[in-house]
Amino acid sequence: MKLMKLGQPEDGLKGISAAEAETPAAPQAGEIKVRLYASSLNYHDYGVASGAMRSVPGRIPMSDGAGVVEAVGEGVTDFAPGDHAVSLFFPDWQDGPPAVADFSRTPGDGIDGYAREYVVTPASWFTKAPRGWTHEEAATITTAGLTAWRALVVEAQIKPGDKVLLLGTGGVSVYALQIAKGCGAQVAITSSSDDKLKKAIELGADFTVNYKSDEKWGETVQAWAGGTGVDHVVEVGGPATLANSIDACRIGGNIVLIGVLTGFQGDIPTAKLMSKQIRLTGIIVGSHRHQQEFVRGLETMNVKPVIDKTFPLRQLAEAFEYEASGQHFGKICIAI
């Protein structure tokens, strides 16, 4: 089978190379064999591939994987040959409260990922894909889609009429826009690109603000939300954006921190956070049960992911370069 692998961490994207390996044998008891057809890029994958998040040389990257079940091992009842399946970011976290705090068992980071044609894994490492979705569409669920779902539905418990602030127009934020609108919420979204803000409006955004031309965008969003602030913020920036997000959020509102695009540490206006009695929750993706519930939700919400561009597997490095350029709106996919 064909696959892509990483080089030395210091080589970054230039170290990504094509390789071949034997196709995995038939699945054993409790396992499934999946012919992978698609993956999608996430900030975490870029961090590993670029060397910013060090992994072992030779690691097969990519946390997202979608394809067709070709064979099932003894005792497997959740899948049958021909089923369309999509991978889990935390394959060992099946249910209950968070059980992991690192990426040692995350495909594409601590263990080999899905930039390859075939994989044999425990059946519990996958869920079924939504009915009628392409493999590229399904591949966006694992990381970006499930993060948006958990932030809004599981943690924020969004309801019709709520006001939501989303930061940027990357994969998670665009997914969150679609989920929030599907739940009947009103949505404000930020970007440094007026063209991307126009696309967000086409997807249903109720209010947009360019954070480059409006440095106090948090106060601007607060004013849009009736002067009291939004109910929920999906915070992807971290230290450089959190102060504005607190300004935008209402008293007793929720901020779900799902990214650190502006850095890993920085100043936080703790007094304002406390005085506004805002709940700040940090999350990383979700569990097997969360993903099953998300898939069921997608099948009833009439939502499809926004895919900006698809690259062939051999052009994985070019796909990461495109991601790093910030030109994309929504998800970048890999056809395998």
Provide the domain count: 2
- The tally of strands reads 15
Q: What is the CATH homology-level superfamily of the largest domain?
A: Medium-chain alcohol dehydrogenases, catalytic domain
Low-confidence runs of at least 5 consecutive residues: none
Oligomer: single chain
Strand fraction band? 15-25%
Total count of helical runs of at least 4 residues: 10
> What is the mean predicted local confidence, pLDDT?
96
Q: Distance N terminus to C terminus?
A: 11 Å
Order of helices and strands: EEEHEEEEHHEHEHEHEHEHEHEHE
Q: How big is the Rg? A: 20 Å
CATH topology assignment of the largest domain = Quinone Oxidoreductase, Chain A, domain 1
Could you estimate the helical fraction of the residues in percent?
A: 25-40%
InterPro entries: ADH-like_C, ADH-like_N, ER, GroES-like_sf, NAD(P)-bd_dom_sf, Zinc_ADH-like
Protein name: NAD(P)-dependent alcohol dehydrogenase
Pfam families: ADH_N (PF08240), ADH_zinc_N (PF00107)
Essential attributes:
Quinone Oxidoreductase, Chain A, domain 1; Zinc_ADH-like; GroES-like_sf; 10 helices; six-stranded parallel sheet; 2 domains; 336 residues; seven-stranded mixed sheet; NAD(P)-dependent alcohol dehydrogenase; Rossmann fold; single chain; 15 strands; NAD(P)-bd_dom_sf; alpha/beta
